[in-house]
Design a protein that fits this description.
globular; seven-stranded parallel beta sheet; about 240 residues
Length: about 240
């Protein structure tokens, strides 16, 4: 029976190239900062520049071909790629008949199709490095609510995509699905008050959720984290 070496129970990320999507704000920014602190060579993909000097390829992740080109560009410049972390996510809540079609479709394009495009482009490089993928789902990828058809459809899609990808890449690339609950980010800021969390609701600090990403990426060879759920204590959409 083969087991991992207990003296090497945590993989160092120093100088390992990692692509993180959605780094301009929220969870993506927190993940990028945390990975930089670990010594990883982080490149963000986002439509806007990232904070704290994180190198960023500015790209619209709703454009799958552009997202793919950006990943290939980063990997080619670095000469390799260890991991991709797909944090980018958008949502405009409202009834199906009330949300403009282009807004509805963009939600699915960024959250689901953008995730698939980034991972697809990274596959040759991740196979070469026996690297890792972390996708970001949502508690609303497991439980549906009203006025969130686009978001739920996209995040349910990320759940199915990731579980199928895990089966497809078993033994080649480590795949982890991270399911966060509500986080204290700007995600809710532009919403109508009825779609915002109550002011007294405790939300997770995205920096703490980012720790889960670091945990998944630093497991030693022979150990993979398949799924992680990180929520505040009173998360209403889990389980």
């Amino acid at each position: 029976m083969r087991t991992h070496d207990p003296d090497h129970s945590r993989r160092a990320l120093h100088d390992l190239p990692v692509v993180v999507t959605g780094t301009a704000s929220g969870l993506g920014a927190a993940v990028a900062a945390r990975l930089l602190a670990e010594g990883a060579k982080v490149t963000g993909l986002d439509r806007r520049p990232s904070p704290d000097g994180v190198p960023t390829v500015e790209v619209d992740l709703a454009d799958g071909r552009a997202a793919e080109r950006a990943v290939v560009e980063v990997a080619a410049d670095a000469g390799r790629l260890y991991a991709v972390v797909t944090c980018a996510g958008v949502d405009v809540p409202g009834g199906l008949g009330d949300v403009p079609a282009e807004v509805w479709e963009r939600t699915v394009a960024v959250n689901l199709l953008g995730t698939a495009a980034v991972v697809r482009a990274a596959l040759p490089f991740l196979r070469a490095s026996r690297g890792r993928v972390v996708t970001v789902a949502s508690t609303l990828g497991h439980r549906a609510v009203g006025d969130a058809t686009a978001y739920c459809a996209s995040k349910f899609g990320v759940v199915g995509f990731t579980r199928a990808l895990t089966a497809e890449l078993r033994g080649e690339i480590g795949v982890t699905m991270l399911t966060p609950g509500g986080m204290a980010t700007a995600f809710f800021d532009a919403r109508d008050d009825r779609y915002k969390p109550p002011p007294d609701l405790l939300l997770c600090d995205p920096a703490q959720v980012a720790e889960a990403v670091v945990f998944a990426l630093t497991r030693p060879p022979g150990v993979e984290v398949r799924e992680l759920v990180v929520t505040p204590p009173d998360e209403s959409s889990w389980p």
